[in-house]
């Protein structure tokens, strides 16, 4: 394959549906592509013209319209179009026009049909109308299985390759510069391209993969033997070489390494090395270390141990992301870890202060309650006390306990809540009857403060103590909220206060008013409004669930949402959450403090497409919310008091 | 010039064609002469493949992008090390039809150019000589109008190599995407100078950026040939009518 075709192949392999293809088919596509440039404003496909090629946007942007001329879709780098017309009758139904200067790759229809026939994932993608978001989320789920994930996914960098005559000292310096533990050793052509282990480099030269040298080889075969740094690497390298193909599964690659007791496995694309897989890469992919963290929390004997353990939290988080866990799993795991910290702190507190004078229930609120926690979330908690509670006699104890937990959590890098939604605040440390009064009041008199509290306190999670008390509060919400149209209308309006942006481009965020921003807060503009929106529907249908996905399941059993909307919301939520999580994981791995502010230039372009789709889902759902929960006629507010 | 009245723009373009046309109108006569006189049969076949009428609209002309990488910039001392060609038309660039050759140079490589091209001594020592591949290269060029980025390198090096190995000159009309780029930006430069802007880069990859074309790995003959083909499509789409006669574009 020529280098220009490699360039094409590399680009297409990043995007659905081509990313599902094996190496052989990708080669086919890359070698058969034809290219054409379209200036902004020119037609790419005219209505009713014959179409015999699938179109792929290499750069630029295009607009797809309906027959009526109405805008149907906007597509950018990595998107495909024309496939539905190829599958139908090879006439263009949706004309396409370039809105930026655009480079299009054309793939012959015959090849497209072969790909459809051969690859189910590819066929699914084009036959379901290219529902990118769904395809991506499903794909991420599949990725969780080691046996179906291709090994090329774990290859993050090109291999360091050196000539066989290079002095071993220089090789060691190369290893230091490139920060690698293994280099591949190449020798020049002797037997021609058909000899064993020969390949053509990207520059078109013929080379032989002669062996490899690991940092251990440097130590054992060179240093320990008193060899000088001038010794050619060819004299100390290992020559017994196992390799794996880039489309082999991770599982196969791991078995090869274990069976041959090797730590480094060169990965080949055809015959050319594209990277070196390390056993530790595979291990990291597979370890479930967050479970280990939870069990360690309970074996600690004091605060110091907990603080030390919390230092592992960012790594456990990053590892979960690396392992391909979905946002649900990660949110649940992080929430479980947080609750475990609180439970252990309560245990330590009770040991220090003595047993509680009256029964109580310790609960968490917000993301932890919904099992949607990410890393370094603020602490939000409250206490329900038994009806036998007498403030003068008992509150000193609970105040101290709350303080102990709150400070302990802060030491374990869960910052104090800025809004003071913590059990250290006397307002949020009250007997059940007072809590019921709060809840009733918020629902019946939805003023701005009540709405703020509703959106925090109606996500309730149990941590420790008397579960009944918490269930009674939840029951109250389920009973009152659906009946109160004014409350729902107010919650709905409140849920619209934060909106998604209109679009994402390579370097900026396009706002609805045409403004450009350079970064987006994924929580404020994405997950939070989605959570708010789903909470309104969940309250309306009397759902007792706290988790957003569980709430969506409850909602899907009612007729509150039009068909299909529920699934789309689920995909959108999963996707935005995942981008946010990954953004934080990247920050952690590069030793920066994770935040929610995403710059579009840091997002791969296929992810940008999916994000745009997800924001669109959110935007539509917000419009629907507005008219689904109108302010009831005849209400006191409706009369404009 | 974009803001000029339509009519004035047309006049200006015509004048430019006229000015350039006089220079290039000698090509058909020169090519016809070479067809009869070429002694080397590879050159004879190439020149015999038919010459292009300078009045043919650019949209109807079969094109071929050509890029060569060299050991340096001086055709009398440096040599060709690789050649990439990419046949195309204004409508399509079929990548399956591209071709690439590594050529062994007449003289040893300087260390600077080794880094530059990532081709080493032994790659080039084992490669065929220019006269062993020129027949294949000319087959790809025959009947097509050659497009390059910066005429001087391709024209002078091919001519020098041809004179050295085949003992005959090899000259043919070329469309130069760099000249088109220079022409487009020279016209705008009075205003740019007025506002103190520095002249834009005319090199291949910065030029491509102005047309929203994607970045490619630079300094590989085949990729640069593809990049040049895409650039010409973009330049014609932005600046010229598809009916522009090739005689107004070639050099």
From TrEMBL, chain A:
Instruction: Spell out the molecular function terms from Gene Ontology.
Output: [protein-PII] uridylyltransferase activity
Pfam families tied to this protein: CBS (PF00571), cNMP_binding (PF00027), DUF294 (PF03445), DUF294_C (PF10335)
CBS domain: residues covered:
155-231, 237-293
What Gene3D superfamilies does this protein's entry cite? Answer: CBS-domain, Jelly Rolls
Keyword Transmembrane in the entry? The reply is no
Ranges annotated as spanning the membrane: none
Kindly state which keywords UniProt assigns to this record, in alphabetical order: CBS domain
Q: Where's the Cyclic nucleotide-binding domain? A: 17-115
Q: Which InterPro entries does its entry note?
A: CBS_dom, CBS_dom_sf, cNMP-bd_dom, cNMP-bd_dom_sf, Diverse_CBS-Domain, DUF294_put_nucleoTrafse_sb-bd, GlnD_Uridyltrans_N, RmlC-like_jellyroll
Q: What protein name is recorded for this chain?
A: Hypoxic response protein 1
Q: Which organism is it from?
A: Kushneria phyllosphaerae
From TrEMBL, chain B:
Show where the Exonuclease domain sits: 62-241
Q: What is this protein called?
A: DNA polymerase III PolC-type
Q: Its GO CC terms?
A: cytosol
Entries under InterPro entries matching the protein: Ribonucl_H, RNaseH-like_sf, RNaseH_sf
- UniProt keyword GTP-binding, yes or no: no
Entries under PANTHER family matching the protein: DNA POLYMERASE III SUBUNIT EPSILON (PTHR30231), PROTEIN NEN2 (PTHR30231:SF4)
Tell me a Gene Ontology molecular-function term this record carries.
nucleic acid binding
Which top EC class is named for this enzyme in its record?
A: transferase
Cytoplasm keyword on record: no
Instruction: Write down the Pfam families for this protein, in alphabetical order.
Output: RNase_T
Give the UniProt keywords, A-Z: Exonuclease, Hydrolase, Nuclease, Nucleotidyltransferase, Transferase
Its gene name is polC
Enzyme Commission number(s): 2.7.7.7
């Amino acid at each position: 394959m020529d280098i220009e075709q490699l360039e094409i192949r590399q680009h297409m392999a990043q995007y659905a549906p081509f990313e599902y293809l094996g190496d052989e088919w990708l080669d086919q596509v890359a070698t058969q592509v034809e290219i054409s440039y379209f200036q902004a404003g020119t037609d790419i496909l005219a209505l009713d013209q014959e179409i015999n090629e699938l179109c792929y946007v290499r750069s630029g942007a295009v607009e797809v319209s309906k027959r009526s001329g109405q805008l149907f879709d906007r597509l950018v780098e990595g998107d495909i179009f024309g496939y539905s017309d190829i599958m139908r009758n090879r006439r263009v139904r949706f004309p396409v026009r370039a809105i930026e200067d655009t480079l299009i790759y054309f793939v012959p229809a015959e090849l497209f049909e072969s790909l459809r026939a051969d690859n189910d994932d590819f066929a699914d993608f084009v036959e379901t109308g290219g529902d990118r978001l769904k395809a991506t989320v499903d794909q991420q789920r599949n990725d969780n299985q080691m046996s179906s994930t291709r090994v090329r996914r774990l290859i993050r960098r090109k291999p360091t390759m050196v000539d066989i005559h290079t002095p071993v000292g220089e090789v060691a310096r190369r290893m230091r510069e490139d920060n690698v533990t293994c280099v591949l050793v190449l020798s020049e052509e002797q037997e021609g391209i058909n000899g064993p282990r020969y390949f053509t480099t990207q520059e078109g030269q013929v080379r032989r993969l002669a062996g490899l040298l690991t940092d251990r080889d440097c130590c054992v075969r060179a240093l320990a033997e008193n060899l000088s740094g001038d010794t050619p690497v060819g004299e100390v390298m290992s020559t017994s070489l196992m390799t794996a193909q880039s489309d082999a599964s991770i599982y196969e690659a791991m078995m090869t390494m274990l069976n041959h007791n090797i730590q480094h496995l060169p990965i080949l694309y055809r015959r050319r090395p594209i990277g070196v897989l390390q056993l530790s890469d595979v291990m990291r992919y597979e370890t479930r270390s967050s479970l280990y963290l939870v069990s360690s929390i309970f074996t600690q004997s004091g605060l110091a141990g907990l603080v030390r353990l919390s230092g592992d939290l960012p790594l456990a988080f990053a590892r979960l992301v690396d392992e391909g866990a979905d946002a649900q799993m990660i949110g649940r795991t992080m929430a479980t870890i947080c609750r475990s910290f609180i439970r252990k702190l309560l245990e330590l507190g009770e040991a220090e202060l003595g047993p509680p004078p009256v029964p109580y229930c310790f609960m968490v609120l917000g993301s932890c309650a919904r099992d949607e926690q990410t890393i370094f979330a603020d602490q939000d908690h409250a206490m329900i006390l038994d009806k036998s509670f007498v403030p003068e006699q008992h509150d000193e104890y609970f105040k101290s306990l709350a303080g102990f937990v709150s400070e302990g959590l802060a030491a374990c890098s869960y910052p104090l809540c800025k809004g003071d939604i913590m059990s250290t605040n006397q307002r949020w440390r009250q007997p059940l009857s007072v809590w019921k009064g709060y809840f009733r009041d918020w629902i019946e008199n939805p003023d701005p403060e009540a709405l703020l509290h509703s959106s925090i306190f109606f996500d309730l999670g149990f941590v420790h103590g008397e579960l009944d008390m918490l269930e009674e509060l939840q029951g109250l919400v389920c009973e009152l909220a659906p009946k109160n149209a004014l409350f729902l209308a107010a919650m709905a309006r409140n849920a619209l206060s934060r909106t998604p942006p209109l679009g994402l481009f390579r370097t900026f965020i396009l706002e609805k008013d045409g403004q450009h921003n350079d970064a987006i807060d994924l929580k404020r503009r994405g997950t939070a409004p989605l959570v708010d929106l789903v909470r309104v529907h969940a309250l309306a249908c009397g759902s007792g669930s706290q988790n957003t996905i569980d709430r969506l399941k409850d909602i899907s059993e009612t007729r509150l949402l039009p068909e299909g909307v529920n699934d789309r919301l689920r995909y959108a939520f999963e996707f935005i959450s995942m981008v946010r999580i990954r953004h934080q994981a990247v920050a952690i791995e590069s030793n920066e403090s994770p935040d929610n502010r995403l710059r579009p230039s840091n997002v791969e372009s296929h992810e940008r497409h999916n994000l745009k789709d997800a924001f669109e889902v959110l935007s539509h759902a917000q419009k629907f919310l507005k008219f689904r929960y109108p302010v009831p006629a005849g209400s006191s507010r409706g009369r404009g008091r | 010039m974009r803001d000029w009245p339509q009519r004035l723009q047309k006049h200006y373009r015509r004048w430019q064609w006229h000015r350039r046309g006089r220079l290039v109108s000698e090509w058909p006569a020169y090519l016809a002469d070479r067809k009869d006189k070429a002694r080397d049969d590879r050159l004879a076949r190439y020149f015999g493949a038919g010459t292009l009428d300078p009045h043919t609209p650019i949209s109807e002309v079969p094109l071929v992008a050509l890029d060569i990488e060299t050991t340096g910039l001086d055709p009398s001392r440096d040599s060709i090390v690789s050649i990439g060609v990419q046949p195309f038309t204004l409508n399509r660039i079929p990548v399956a039809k591209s071709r690439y050759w590594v050529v062994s140079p007449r003289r040893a490589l300087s260390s600077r150019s080794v880094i530059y091209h990532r081709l080493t001594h032994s790659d080039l020592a084992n490669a065929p000589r220019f006269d062993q591949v020129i027949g294949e290269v000319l087959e790809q060029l025959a009947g097509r109008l050659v497009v390059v980025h910066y005429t001087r390198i391709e024209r002078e090096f091919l001519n020098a190599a041809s004179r050295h190995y085949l003992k005959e000159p090899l000259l043919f009309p070329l469309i130069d995407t760099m000249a088109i780029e220079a022409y487009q930006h020279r016209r705008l430069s009075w205003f740019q100078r007025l506002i103190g802007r520095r002249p834009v880069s005319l090199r291949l990859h910065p030029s491509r950026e102005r047309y929203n074309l994607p970045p490619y790995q630079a300094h590989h003959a085949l990729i640069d040939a593809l990049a040049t083909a895409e650039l010409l499509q973009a330049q014609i789409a932005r600046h010229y009518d598809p009916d522009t006669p090739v005689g107004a574009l070639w050099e």
